[in-house]
Amino acid sequence: MASITRPPHAVVVPFPGQGHVNPLMHFAKILAARGFFVTFINTDRMEQRIFKTPNDSAAVSHQLLQQGLQIRFLAVYDGLPPDHGGVQAIDEYFLATQKLGPAMVRILRSTANEAPQITCIVTDCFMACTHHVATSLAVPRVVFWTYCASAAIALANSRTLMDKGYIPINVKEARRPENLITCLPGKIPPLIPTDLQTFFRVQDTADPMFQVIMYESEIQNEADYVLINVFEELEGPEAAEGLSKGYPALPIGPVFLPDFLQSTKSSVSVATSLWEEDLDCIKWLQTKALSSVLYVSFGSIAVMSMKQLQELALGLEASEQPFLWVLRPDIAEGKAAVLPEGFTERIGERGRIVQWAPQLKVLSHPSVGGFLTHNGWNSTLESISFGVPMIGWPLWAEQFHNCRFCKEVWKIGMDFESRVENENALVSREEVEMVVRAMMEGPQGNELRKNAARLKEAATKAVMAGGSSYRNLDKFTRDMTARANSVIE
Ligand code: UDX
Q: Measuring from atom 11 of ligand 1, which residue has the nearest CA?
């Protein structure tokens, strides 16, 4: 009698933030294309931002199904009042996510008859509550890292780093040779203490975010399988092993890239942007010369002082380079930026300001030659994948790690000297002008572009049939398919 292979069912749970929903959604589509049934769990707050009305999520599921992709969306109430500041009140927001386990178990149990038996929970590395879900449902917990492997290893070993005195971080003495961190597992370059999470810079270990991150770090180690949104050729094939405690730890990224490479074919794109994308900026990019435009964006959460934004504006103006600048409506410490008097008139067609950009379309556009970025991991990986070198302006979380690695390890980035010495220093318009010119018109920028082009090729190869990430995904698919069938039979 011929045996029928049952599809594995992955429950995918992102942290409710843009830099987490994006990669987890891309990964959900990869899994569905490989025959998985996927349940994607958002918080209600996130679902309303993405889908606008509850019916939209059902419509998206239906469209996906017509292409043979089975993804259903569920939402759990995040327990916060509707007018809560969300991720901007980050400690409360995190603490709320840490309590979501029982609600997730309830909704999965109450909808069990709509889906195959659950095979695994694919959890964002910052959703400790899924430990409760995986334990209650007796299924493996697959930890999905939205960081590169070396930053992930550092975070997962926070307790050890604290015991050894690297945490809380002594920023002033971080660059002393005796403070190099060489005790971490996995073959990764030595770290310096300022590469570690910025939440560990506070000296009071009772600080709420210090505690939140310490707890998430402990639970990150409660894994049965680890996947990392990076590709082996970037950090070396052995780096990821530092995340394994006997279970597989596989680089499977960049997860956005297969979908992007396929997008010319008819495929349903699941819009996950929290703000409306300004598509007209692509038409503006068409009018610019090859590699001539600097793209400027600080991601979805980071904010800056009004004074710094104005200084940055004047530096961009003085650089005389074309630029596309994302200024979120809350970028100036919660408010809209007020730019220097006469700035937009003086810039004219040379510069373009948008509230939110279609970032993948922008970074893949031939007119873009550099990215001034906060070095969130998604932005960094997207830039690497499109061969665009970066000027790093890290602000928080593991962005300092990414920025230093771009500059010193991967040789595809620059930074601002004044910020390396003191992250709170105001970056002057003169320094902005100097660094932007060096990136966009100097030999240094050309060298970085060449290095970035090599990594672009490696990233593309990694996700194509036979590439390192593709093979790792084959293994994950085989392992979960085997589990789905062994559990049921
Ligand atoms: C957060 C943290 O800041 C970051 O350090 C961590 O690595 C991931 O979580 P965020 O600040 O949002 O993320 O930055 P990033 O990781 O770069 O993610 C932003 C996402 O929004 C990217 O996928 C990017 O393509 C998208 N984006 C950004 C847009 O689509 N349009 C924009 O205008 C800006």
A: 299
